[in-house]
Design goal:
The chain is of the alpha/beta class. It has 2 domains: 7-75 and 364-412, Urease, subunit C, domain 1; 77-357, TIM Barrel. Helix content is 26%, strand content 24%. α2 crosses α3.
Length: 415
């Protein structure tokens, strides 16, 4: 990757990190506020916020200048469904913190306590332009709930938690609960019964036949109160339509994760305001629930008015180990299958931020300064992040892999 393109120059003594001021000049700024970029833009950043975005804007004295040299600048990418910070090596049990067992499992299981910012997968995703992600739990022993997901911010250091309890996650279909609930009719029944149980007054006693303990009741009430969405990991059309009905009947925010056959239920999803986080690379079924998989899924849903974000990209392995590179590649594949370029950019920036964080991810005055300067088209895998800014600070784009390359093959590394 051509990371040497964006040159960083200090026009005065650098300010302390806590008060870093940055000017990105000569940028092709994809602000996400319009369908076309702002050419030759100057983006000013101070105190972790974007101050201004102007064509040919002036640069104040005493700031760090990053010359984008006419290349694209986008908001930091957000992977809409990963397990970054929860998995390091999938075959090593002591590095997997995605699933709870026994009494720890269920709606109150909160993955935020296990997030590891020192994971080498975090720096790898950050070097590929990912500044935020949803990190969600895997299927647990307690049908149908997996637990509570968190949004993470891939800042350097061990603390990557952005917001805990960003979503309550449930899994329907796909063989996840064969032993616990059998038929998916039983899975839906358990989910509805759990919501009904959590609706009861707080003073109601918890009986021996209750599905939820007091901790779980408190967690599910956050969904009913609108404090967090219910994310349902599912793929089959019939289940997706059930999810849309659930959203309308219980008046809760529902998000589909997976949704291989979501295109078949685009009308129902749009009517119920249910967003979908999908894998744009998926083109073949992995289970019988995914028989209807097709690569123009995102384009069909977007045309129907469904908010679409990208996640789960590349399957269980790639979604963590190449959570940035494959995310960009998948967005490019979506463009090749009917999505417009700006729609694909939004699916990896503003849309996942709106779904999980409820905050804009645009390049606009007052917005959070999470930005990426690219050395080429961000949806082209051979391009790369020349500079990454998180919370208004420029962060390293080096990784363990690049350090090993520098040590053992220094001549292969561009000066």
């Amino acid at each position: 990757m051509k990371r040497a393109l964006a040159m960083v120059a200090l026009v005065a003594a650098p300010l302390p990190a806590a008060a870093q001021s940055i000017a990105i000049v000569h940028a092709k700024a994809w602000t996400m506020l319009a369908d076309a970029p702002v050419e030759n833009a100057t983006i000013l950043i101070a105190d972790g916020r974007i101050v201004s975005v102007k064509t040919g804007g002036a640069v104040p004295a005493g700031v760090t200048v990053i010359d984008a040299a006419g290349q694209p600048v986008t908001p930091g990418l957000m992977n809409g469904a990963t397990q970054i910070g929860l998995t390091e090596v999938s075959s090593a049990q002591d590095t997997r913190d995605t699933v709870a067992t026994g009494r720890a499992s269920g709606p109150s299981f909160d993955v935020s306590y296990a997030l590891n910012g020192n994971s080498t997968l975090v720096e790898l995703a950050r070097a590929d332009g990912v500044t935020r992600a949803l990190s969600f739990p895997g299927a647990s022993e307690t049908a149908p709930f997996s637990g509570q997901a968190s949004t993470v911010r891939l800042r350097p250091g061990v603390d990557i938690l952005d917001h805990a309890r960003a979503a309550m996650v449930a899994v329907i279909g796909g063989g996840a609960w064969d032993k616990a609930a059998g038929s998916r009719a039983g899975q839906w029944g358990l989910l509805r019964a759990s919501l009904d149980e959590a609706r009861l007054p707080a003073t109601s006693p918890v009986g021996d036949d209750a599905l939820l303990n007091r901790r779980d009741v408190a967690a599910v009430r956050q969904v009913l109160a609108g404090a967090m969405p219910l994310a349902i990991v599912t793929h089959r059309e019939s289940d997706i339509r059930q999810a849309a009905k659930l959203a309308q009947e219980y008046r809760i925010k529902v998000v589909i994760i997976g949704g291989s056959e979501a295109w078949r239920a685009a009308d129902a999803l749009a009517a119920a305001h249910v967003a979908v986080v999908l894998d744009p690379e998926a083109n073949m079924p992995a289970t019988f629930d995914q028989i209807g998989t097709r690569q123009d899924n995102a384009a069909i849903l977007t045309r129907a008015g469904v908010t679409v974000a990208f996640g789960l990209v590349g399957g269980a392995l790639e979604q963590n180990y190449n959570a940035g590179l494959v995310l960009r590649e998948g967005a490019g594949i979506a463009v090749a299958n009917g999505l417009t370029y700006i729609q694909a950019l939004r699916a990896v920036t503003v849309n996942p931020a709106a779904i999980w964080a409820g905050r804009p991810a645009t390049i606009a005055p007052g917005g959070a300064a999470d930005l990426v300067v690219w050395d080429g088209d961000p949806l082209e895998p051979s391009s790369g992040a020349a500079a990454v800014i998180i919370e208004g600070r420029q962060v390293p784009v080096t990784t363990r892999q690049s350090a090993l390359q520098q040590r053992y093959a220094p001549l292969a590394v561009a000066p």
